[in-house]
Amino acid sequence: MADRMLESNQQRKSHETTKRPSALLCSTLSKRTVLAPLGLPRNIHLIFIVYPQSSRWSSKASSFLYLLARGSFSRSQRMDLCISSTTPRCVPFPSVVGLPLSLPSCSSVRVKEMSLSTRHKLSFGIWYPLEPLESPSTTRRFAASVAVGTESDRLPADIQVTEAEEPNCRVRLSVEVPPAVCQDCYRRVIKEFMKQAKVPGFRPGKNVPESILLSYVGKQNVQKATVESILKRTLPHAMSSVSGRALKDSVRIMTKYSDMEQAYSSNSSLRYDVVVDVAPEVKWVPEDGYKNLKIVVEIDREIDAQKACDEELKRRYKSLGALKIVADRGLQIGDVAVLDISATTIDQDESKVQRIPSAESKGYQFDTEDGDKVLPGFLDSIIGIQPGETKAFPLAFPESWRQENLRGVNALFTVDCKELFYRQLPELDDSLADKLLPGCSSLKEVEESLLAKCREVEDTAREQATDNAILHQLRKMVEIDIPLSLFEEQGRQLYGAQLLQMQASMNLNEQQLASLSSPETVREYLEDQKENIISVIKQNMAVGDIFKRENLQFSTDELVKEVENSIQEFKRHKQEYDEDRIREQVQEVMEGAKVLEWLREHAQIQYVTR
Asked: What pTM value is reported for the model?
């Protein structure tokens, strides 16, 4: 009842709300950044209600769920959520799958339905974010169905709004609604009920005496509908004081709904408190420090083009040889040995000796020409070992060892030599060119082709490492008071992207997906990845701030081209998409690439080989 008056405004955009930084601004922004998963919903949480007539989930339903989770549907295909307290009823949820959700304390939830197939009917709705970390009993989520901004609906009297700053970029608005506004909302509700209620003895749409209408509909239901109408009409006006700063979907009405009903019933007026997260300020330490960055970029020696080319040519050449069994001597450089390796810590107290599983291996095929890639001293300790022989020797893990828990550890290694081989290689000349690299006719051509490819890899890796070093430095130079809603949204986006990757690579079933999407699992992720989430937010906001400060731009043609390329990808995979969402994400990534390009030009960069 009173459906038209209470229709949700969730689909409508508001230009007065501040756009949040995208989770797709990855740790390495550049023109090569992969725009995936494009269309991932931001600040939209979906609930999927599946009514299967068979016990198994069809592949069509599964793929449809995947598309919904990506947020790839156009706005016209996304269904509204309607909250109404006028007609309490129970909504069954036979099978709920999707991103984490918590049901609000409303009397009824109505979702529109879409026919999925002859065997499945899928109902779904756009839901607002999960309850905040504070107790859900202290808040009532209403903001998702309210468009933040000044409504064209003029009020018969001005409301009074008192603004107070709170920690974590939060603003509390105390709203006092005068009786004139409450009375106007009451009249509208009565008028709407008259249009829709089918009161016995009166034709639909005809005027019904108010007393009879109240008796038929119920005074309490009318009061509830009036309070909702007051909230819907006054909240946009109250939010006008923070327009341009308010973060989308961060509005929460803190006053209990029951308290508002009681206050309206007693005084014919209303007072409620609203909290909203506002865009945090980016503070640079030092101010404008990003303009004089001094970056040290560590480059792995393995990506050196010439060295990588020599290693690749050597690997290809060795693959052409045949392994022959060694029968009359011990291990020497150039041989390949099959080893069983075990390792324990060294301690005078034998009860404290522990195995080192990460240093153990069975049937390990050890190429002696790769001796520089293992623990220093290991190769020298087994030179001369023969098949069937066992050697034990102590070694110390260097302080630069890749596993931190083993750095400086003294270990006792035991090595059993199972088999020993030497390589019988053909003569290296131009006759092997086509085998080393198909299409080449000489060794020189092979070397030139391999070197060109290795240089491309080196340039890409160098540029990627530079971007990472710059972004790491930016994160340390900004101080940001991050709102809780922004943290939770960013974390859910990262987790959603991770979940989609898992679904694509592991083909998760319905039960696994539901388990991984549970509120408890998401909350654990937010807690475990807190530092990483904060780093991503700082990085994104720092990049966005630089883009604005330096007035950086890119051409519209570039944007259109990238959007078209992304849309073609969706079409190629026969997936539906939201073009506006794609455009927004492409624009954010292009802004990031532009900022990194500007920073590389203005920074002092030193490259160090490690």
From this structure: 0.56
